[in-house]
What we know:
By secondary structure, the protein is mostly beta strands. The protein folds into two domains: 1-16 and 303-449, no CATH class; 69-295, paralog of FGE (formylglycine-generating enzyme) (Alpha-Beta Complex), CATH 3.90.1580.10. It is built from five helices and 26 strands. The strands form nine sheets. Strands 1, 12, 15 and 17 form a four-stranded antiparallel beta sheet that branches. It has a four-stranded antiparallel beta sheet with strand order 2-3-6-11. A four-stranded mixed beta sheet has the order 9-8-7-10. Strand 13 and strand 14 form a beta hairpin. The longest helix is centred in the first third of the chain and has 10 residues, at 152-161. The radius of gyration is 31 Å and the shape is elongated.
Amino acid sequence: xxxxxxxxxxxxxxxxxxxxxxxxxxxxxxxxxxxxxxxxxxxxxxxxxxxxxxxxxxxxxxxxxxxxxxxxxxxxxxxxxxxxxxxxxxxxxxxxxxxxxxxxxxxxxxxxxxxxxxxxxxxxxxxxxxxxxxxxxxxxxxxxxxxxxxxxxxxxxxxxxxxxxxxxxxxxxxxxxxxxxxxxxxxxxxxxxxxxxxxxxxxxxxxxxxxxxxxxxxxxxxxxxxxxxxxxxxxxxxxxxxxxxxxxxxxxxxxxxxxxxxxxxxxxxxxxxxxxxxxxxxxxxxxxxxxxxxxxxxxxxxxxxxxxxxxxxxxxxxxxxxxxxxxxxxxxxxxxxxxxxxxxxxxxxxxxxxxxxxxxxxxxxxxxxxxxxxxxxxxxxxxxxxxxxxxxxxxxxxxxxxxxxxxxxxxxxxxxxxxxxxxxxxxxxxxxxxxxxxxxxxxxxxxxxxxxxxxxxxxxxxxxxxxxxxxxxxxxxxxxxxxxxxxxxxxxxxxxxxxxxxxxxxxxxxxxxxxxxxxxxxxxxxxxxxxxxxxx
Length: 536
């Protein structure tokens, strides 16, 4: 248990009551007897601490340097790729090695996930992926898998939805290889199942944050393996020989189709070097083909609010945390004036007795003399002179550490999230979200409830039924809530022997693309999603 630096107090002035009891300049007739004046003993409400005013600070944005990361509006993390030259290509007729210079840009740390893409579909800005190429699209166990089964236009539409674009081949390759032309994102060592999801090591797509050892020089994840990625360029085998060496955008058109980078969960080792080029017709879609986006202005949107508790260690190395349980004692002061005796009786109350954090003041000249070691309540004192009585205490919390929202840092001595003085220029939010000016981030509209979590986590509930974002497999069932939760025993789900992996759940209606997330309920007993309104 730690103490929050939230000291509150209740005070009372005895001056008025004592003045009312003091002798008047006009003599009082002796035939009249002064009645005993009794003030009703009522606890005084705890004074709420003043709400700090956050003054917006206009900044140029996050620093453009290697290792810089920025939380984005759809729950993704942007990684910085500073401008400058890098080695592109690695031999071959369509892939000669050459030096290309790029301007600064920001790129998604991971491929776009099923859950992120569902935001765009819900907003009416994207078409749902092909249900055969992406059977896990609406499955809670696959929310953080890369969205697949999308065409080039669908991928481009999502990037436009988040005020970005598909990366060019040059941007993608620099992110994957770094400035010095590494063969693979992690270096020059041969690919293994510890670095990427390839060669049927798993046999299907996986969570985009599963392979931190395979991250690139710029801290981008999943640059190789799991799913191929659409990029912006039209494909031309001779473009590297004729194209510009400064910010190349690719040819104007091509009969062969659009360029594709990365590799998939079935790819062999020969397909995994980060310089390897692929292509396909733009209307094609596959179960191992996804995408990620680049962003030129990371401050256009406000970041996604992250006020819920996060469990586990995320891709940025955030520490594990648990929701806080805060306990604030109710303190008060009661006054009873006895004019005949010329005194006021002061009674201090505290709902937590004994309260080791309570302190009283202003009664040092009263009777009996206060004992600072006495933490039991109520306490009463008779005072005969004007004074200000005060009682103070602090709130306490139980739980672990907390992960603070963007622009806030954890004060380890108090357990409170403290504003770090930074701000963001952007105040735009995606449809369904409102801008929170106090925290300078985008929060879901109250009418829709909490229905989205940062990449790498899924929506679930803690043991008390509170909606939280958790790592797959850590949520607990809570029948009183309509949001999807993970079943308590993954071993009861088909295809998960031993119960050591997140469950793979099935749909009762194949046409219900996103039923469990929007418009459906999850049954932890049968491990299925039930549709309310199946899509046509």
